[in-house]
Amino acid sequence: IETRNKYVKGKEIGSGTYAFVYKGHLRDEPNTLVAIKKMKVMENYKDGLTMDAVRETKYLQELSHPNIIKLYDVFTSKDTNMNLVLEFLPRGDLEQLIHDTGNVRYNSADTKAWMGMVARGIWFCHENFVLHRDLKPNNLLIAADGEVKLADFGLARSFSEPHLAMSTEVITRWYRPPELFYRARQYSGAVDIWSVGCIFAELILRNAFLPGQTDIDQVEVICQRIGTPTEENWPGVSKLASYVPVAKDKVRPVQPKSYYMQLFGTVGPFGVDLLMSMFTLDPRKRVTAKGILDHEYWAKDPRPTDKENLPKKG
Ligand code: ADP
User: Boundaries of each Protein kinase domain copy (predicted)?
Assistant: First the structure.
């Protein structure tokens, strides 16, 4: 109740699957704009889950980095489960830019700049033992100065995961790594790295690279376009809970560099190497966030575009 009065809520600026979003500002500092995200009331979750979500989300307030959305506050109210007070990011998200092929043009230097911002954000999360777990172009918001910021943290776990009936309908599976479909017990930052690979690929193609129609189909698409997980390329995979054996003659080999060069050659051979390292099937061998930042790709031409010169939405 007290926190609520620290902010002034203005007009609705959008609504998504889980929330209504309002523009607002600090009561004492009208120039500090915020987005107030009021989570929709969900039928099938319990108060306990909501409290977990609040706790987890509060923890994220501690993370302070230019490529992570600033969370100013979290409060509960009686008509809804949770309200988030977030940094106001007025320039939309990366998904809008990628898919507005009619109005938005960008090149491999712009892609490198956006990927650098995403990589630094995810590196900082992983350094602080936070997994995002729902990275996709639509969760990469753009600040007034062009900076890309990771958004929608923690919410993934609290809101979507236990409710499969709902998530098959509305939650996109295209950015999920194979270990999640096989229900690996312990998973790691490697989950996010696969998603970063999907985002990199989508920035280049301006289309989703692994668009499965169902969870089963998603695994099939991964086998076709990346390669079939086997004991050879991923020791232990056949022991995972939901692993389905594949007949020897149905195994698709891991795609060679030439295949990636054909599809993604515009980012150059080093960009392609980096992309391939993100799409390593075995999560233990997949490149880490640190590995991404240390990659030669960043030092090669072209230099990433300065953020103030990046394309804006039409
Ligand atoms: P979705 O992720 O399904 O688009 P969200 O609930 O995250 O839904 O957001 C709904 C809309 O509100 C977005 O499309 C965006 O335009 C806007 N929005 C979300 N967060 C912010 C923010 N921090 N600053 C400005 N606008 C935002």
Answer: 7-298
State in Å: Cα 147 to ligand 1 middle: 16
Query: How many whole angstroms from 112 Cα to the centroid of ligand 1?
Result: 24
Write down the pTM of the prediction: 0.91
| Mutate-to-test residue for ligand 1 from 7, 9, 11, 13, highest number of ligand atoms within 8 A of CB | 13
How does pLDDT run across 216-234, given as a tens digit for each residue? 999 999 999 999 999 999 9
Residues 18-45 have pLDDT tens digits of 789 999 999 999 999 999 988 776 555 5
User: What value of ipTM does the predicted structure carry?
Assistant: 0.95
- 97 CA distance to ligand 1 middle (Å): 15
Closest atom, ligand 1, to C-alpha of 15: 10
Amino acid letter for position 291 = G
